[in-house]
Design brief:
Immunoglobulin-like; alpha+beta; 787 residues
């Protein structure tokens, strides 16, 4: 652990208050230093005020600018009674909008928008607004799913902030409007009655080079490497795009310790300069140099991801619901309630889902299990072990308390407001509640897994978890016999679940119960559902070019895909648990064969990966373009007939395998885009099988997914805020920027199959999300201590 970071941990009480942000290493700071080649004034105080609609008021103020000039002064009340997720209310009920109209201007000469703003929001912790651009040219902006043309800005309260939105790719040939949208966010504990902002100096700017936003080839002025460092015994590569023939590695003192030729790889994705330095195994800090490019120092060692574990934990801690987080929020959402059969339950607990304040019970349960799993592997580090146990138990408590005891659970809520905490006033929000087999199978598994971890930590709570797991499994089994696979509420992360995922959850749960204590009842269930799960796996069918993957059910008609929430690991997680719970079972050779098949499938996909190491999303068949039923489970807010042609185009942009089979580097997707959960879920699967068999290649695949998140990607950016270097603001509107936050992930543009990472800060791709953090920690659990 770096000594400076150790001091920060101590100062926060080992993440009992948020870690500092270190904005000095952010992309925002880099952008502030770029020379301006040209600019065009939009508003500098001599033009008329922008148009205003919705809440609040807009006025001009003399002498209030950062240098004494004129400002646009915007005020609005903070309280509101309408949740932004409600579809029944007009947005003007809670939103202040200021607009700059334009008569179809061409802005292609410029590549960024700039202005300054000072918020004065007394009692406000997380100050933000969104900028919108409207283009009515060849490519209209916003797009049909409102993913393009928006930029969320996270601000420092009571200070002048520079706002820079670079847009290298954004269509801007016929610009008709810029608007700034400020929401009244409701009442947190400290929130004052009014939010106020002074804006000044709006202008378009041109810089020599805006940040790269699309394509596989590496940024030309940076080296793509894991800014977190490299595990000393593992493969170590970096990527460049310089035209140079050799590179060198320097130690902390600047001495050259290795000089090697660059390996040039040319393929369908482009030309890549691969810098391999796996022979360096001595722990220490190093820098890469190729031509004039010099990387920041990075570590080679046994546990290079140790700091990042604490940072991911910090992000999860900051997302706590129903618990005060210093300098973030108070005891929130205790008046978000769930009603069932006359009983009322407060849904204030667990962790918020993302950048909004939504809650998903199953996500909290899943992340709690991932934290507790890692805790069970790090007992050699007592401080980390106990802090992980503490945070994991916070999520476990919410999981247990979401039950009504009859199979029904408080399941989820869409939420975009701070609430006052008074039950019965106008800002209360109702939680969804239902009895669904998949949720209860899954929660039974989480509870039984918690029982294993708690045996030595809290024996009695562990006992309760196992007893609850038995009850929930029986509820799930009864519901499954009655209803089979049933479609949950659209917004829930279980929407995409096919029968094979039901089987996997049932196997994982029953086998985990038996790992706690012998049980004929649950052993029988584990093996029965295990046989059903194995029947969903492709083992070797004529004409199918790959094997080992899973179908949605035994018919083998539809391949399992994930487009947002990724649980590729769930199948091998369940089968591995069978092997560990029943080591003498006669079925064990078949279970292990299944694990090997899936491991070989991952290796086959990885062989098609680019040098960055991101594992491709999986195999597809063209018949999927006619499968409306499955389409509607995978793609939210999308019309099948409207997008089926685009589905086919996306497949054809993938790797052709023959017989109408394709491999996509990224998922087929439309509205919800971003691949962190998908690639990390597949990395988790590689880690599970790699750890079980001691397979170093699979461990390498798992580790490479961590490196992608730490900056070894075409954009040379760390996707973990505050970890490594060159991280940018993420869509973290309500909790505000958090060290360790991770986004939904890198996306693609339209029907392409190459990475797209716009500088615009918008959901879904740049929204902070709990799932990637949990999945990231779960990969660490498989690799520990070689992280």
């Amino acid at each position: 652990m770096k000594e400076t970071f150790r001091k920060e941990l101590i100062q926060t009480g080992y993440v009992h208050s948020p870690l500092p942000l270190h904005q000095e290493k952010s992309l925002e700071r880099e952008r502030e230093e770029k020379p301006i080649l040209a600019k065009k004034v939009i508003w500098d105080g001599t033009q008329k005020l922008p148009e205003h609609s919705g809440r609040g008021a807009v006025a001009g103020r003399d002498g209030m600018g950062s240098r004494g000039g004129k400002t646009i002064y915007v005020t609005l009340p903070t309280a509101r009674k309408t949740d932004s997720h409600s579809q029944e209310k007009a947005q003007d009920d809670f939103r202040c909008v200021i607009r700059f109209p334009f008569a179809g201007e061409n802005w292609e000469r410029y590549n960024r928008l700039y202005f300054r703003v000072k918020p004065e929001c007394m009692g406000g912790h997380s100050i933000h607004f969104r900028i919108h651009i409207k283009n009515e040219g060849k490519f209209p902006i916003p797009d049909p799913y409102f993913r393009e043309g928006q930029h969320l800005v996270n601000l420092v309260n009571h200070e002048w902030n520079q706002v820079i939105w670079e847009f290298a790719q954004l269509p801007r040939d016929v610009i008709t409007e810029i608007s700034i949208v400020i929401d009244a966010d409701g009442k947190d504990t400290s929130t004052g009655p009014e939010a106020a902002f002074d804006f000044e100096n709006f202008e378009l700017q041109r810089v020599e080079k805006a940040e790269k936003e699309k394509g596989w080839e590496c940024e030309t002025d940076h080296i793509s490497y894991s800014t977190s460092g490299y595990q000393k015994n593992g493969k170590k590569t970096a990527i460049a795009n310089t035209g140079k023939k050799s590179f060198c590695v320097l130690d902390a003192a600047g001495n050259e310790v290795l000089s090697k030729p660059v390996v040039v790889q040319k393929d369908r994705y482009g030309t890549f300069e691969i810098l391999e330095f796996s022979e360096i195994i001595k722990p220490g800090f190093y820098r890469l140099q190729i031509g004039e490019l010099l990387s920041d120092p990075f570590e080679i060692g046994e546990k290079v991801m140790e700091d990042a574990i604490w940072k991911a934990l910090n992000f999860i801690f900051c997302e706590r619901c129903g618990c005060p987080v210093p300098n973030k929020h108070g005891k929130c959402h205790t008046d978000v309630i769930c009603e069932h059969n006359g009983a009322i339950l407060s849904f204030g607990g667990g962790w918020h889902d993302a950048g909004d304040m939504s809650q998903q019970m199953l996500q909290t349960a899943e992340v709690a299990q991932e934290i507790l799993e890692l805790a069970s592997r790090v007992k050699d580090d007592p401080l980390l072990y106990h802090r992980l146990m503490e945070e994991g138990l916070w999520g476990l408590e919410f999981t247990l308390k979401s039950r009504f005891g009859d199979g029904f659970r408080a399941s989820s809520v869409g939420l975009g407001i701070w609430t006052e905490g008074l039950i019965g006033d106008g800002d209360d929000v109702k939680t969804r509640v239902h009895n669904q087999a998949f949720q209860n199978f899954f929660c039974a598994a989480v509870e039984a897994q918690a029982g294993l971890v708690l045996k030595e930590f809290d024996r009695d709570l562990g006992w309760k978890c196992v007893e609850t797991a038995k009850e929930d499994f029986r509820f799930a089994k009864q519901r499954f016999l009655e209803k089979g696979m049933e479609k949950p509420i659209m917004w829930e992360h279980t929407l995409n679940s096919g029968k094979s995922q039901y089987y996997a959850a049932a196997v994982w749960a029953a086998a985990s119960i038996c790992a706690n204590e012998p049980s004929e009842e649950f052993e029988k269930e584990a093996k029965k559902f295990g046989a059903k799960l194995l029947a969903c796996q492709e083992t070797e069918t004529d004409g199918v070019p790959m094997k080992g993957f899973f179908y949605r059910d035994e018919s083998h008609k539809a391949i399992v895909h994930f487009t947002h929430q990724g649980r590729d690991h769930s199948f091998v997680q369940a089968i591995e648990m069978l092997c560990r719970a029943f080591p003498e079972a006669e079925e064990k050779p078949a279970w292990e064969k299944s694990l090997r098949l899936y491991g070989d499938y991952l290796k086959g996909l990885y062989a098609m990966a680019t040098p960055y190491g991101m594992i491709p999303a999986g195999i597809h068949h063209m018949s999927e373009t006619e499968d409306k039923e499955t389409f509607e489970l995978l793609h939210l807010l999308v019309e099948f007939e409207k997008e089926k042609e685009n589905y086919a185009k996306q497949l054809k942009n993938g790797i052709v395998l023959g017989n109408d089979y394709y491999v996509r580097m990224f998922p087929v997707w439309f509205s919800f885009r971003g691949n962190s959960a998908i690639m990390l879920g597949m990395g988790k699967a590689a880690g599970i099988v790699g750890r079980y068999f001691g397979d170093e290649k699979l461990k390498e695949i798992a580790r490479e997914q961590l490196y992608w998140m730490s900056g070894k990607n075409p954009f040379c950016q760390s996707l973990i805020y505050g970890e490594g270097a060159r991280y940018s603001q993420q869509d973290a509107n309500y909790p505000g920027e958090m060290t360790g936050e991770m986004p939904v992930g890198i996306e693609t543009l339209e029907n392409e199959d190459e990475p797209y990472w716009p500088s615009g800060n918008n959901a879904t791709y740049k929204e902070v999300w709990l799932t990637p953090a949990g999945r990231w920690l779960s990969i660490i659990a498989e690799l520990y201590p070689e992280i």
